Structures are given as structure tokens and as C-alpha cells.
Amino acid sequence: MKKNIANFFTIINLFLGVLCIYQCFNSNLISSAFIIIACFIFDGIDGSIARFMKVDSEFGKQLDSFSDFVSFGLAPAFLIFIFFSSQFNNSLSYLFLLIPVFSAIRLARYNINQKHANKFLGLTTPVNALLISSVVLIYYFERNELLRNIIINEYFIIFLVSMSSLMLISNIETFEIRLDKIFVNRRKLFFIFISLSLLYIFSFSGMLMLLLFYVAFSVLKIIN
Question: What's the CATH fold of domain 2-177?
């Protein structure tokens, strides 16, 4: 019974990922972007519960991978493809269909190589999905015209999403943030403070900024 508690949250994540894809095809892009954020939250909950209750299982790991592929591989790809195609007349939008491919490679590599404690090899699929959803939310909610015009630019979006997706299969180490260990690392606590400040000041643009800071701090090994 205890094992199924964590799996229950994983299944919710999977269901929301499928719902996100459905909403994309119905052009409900705002809902889709918020659903990805919800997927991110449930993905964190199921992992925390599994560690807290010490109920890690092979079935749970495989279910989590399939769920992540749908919620953070397929769903954000459909979201950014449909958004970009509706806003810009640019055939480069088809590059975004590589997101599920890179996500599948990232997840498969993680499943067979978990030697890096407290860090990940390459950008994680949830972070990449959050970055993509932040672009859509900035388009609809950002009131600062300067920020909005900088970010909602076809070439900036192509560059941003392409680079973040390539980082999924890179060998760059990115740091892990776990609620049960975060208070023993002052640098991670400082990062959380910066993140909350950016979200408070810049809203959805702040979400994109903190994700870029996350990548920069990982690459420069400021936090490990």
C-alpha cells in the first residue's frame, strides 16, 4: 500500500501530461502552460514521498520515466510548436519536435547511469519543460513591453529552446534541489532566495530568469 502512494502522484503527473497535450490541440495554451507547472509540482511530490517512506521500486522508477516523457517531453514540445506556429511564419518550428527525442535520450541515460549523487548529468526534462512553458506565459501575461519584446522574438525563442533541449543530452552537471537536504547547503538556500525574489518582482519573466540562473550556476559550478 505504501508503495502505491508515491505511484499515485506519478500517475497524476502522467494524467496531467496527457491533459496538457489535449489542451494544446484545442489551442488552450495558457491552460497547457499552467498544467506543465502542476506536473512539475507533482513530479517533486512523488519523489519526496518515495524517499521519505523509503519505498523506491523498479516499477516506480519506470513509471516515473514514462510519466516524465509525456509531461516534460511530449507536452512542452506540442505547446511550443503550436504556440510558435500560431505566432510566427517560420518553418524552423519543426525543430521543436526534437524535444521529445532529446528527452527520451535524457531519461534513458539517467535510468542506466545514476552514479552522480546530488547532481544530474545534463539539464533535466522538468526544468526544460518549465523553461518552455515560461515563454508562453510571458507572451500572455508580461506587462513590461521591453522584456516581452526581447523574449517573444522568433529567433530568441528558437535559440533558447534549441540550446536548452540540446543541454538535455549534454554532459554538463546540474545541481539537484531536494527539500529534505536543501537546508544544509547555504548556496542552494541563497539560490532559492534569488528565485523567490525574481518571481515576486518579474512574475513569469522571473521564472525564465531563474531557470537561466540555474543553468549558469550549474555550468560555472557556483552551486554543486
Answer: Four Helix Bundle (Hemerythrin (Met), subunit A) (1.20.120)
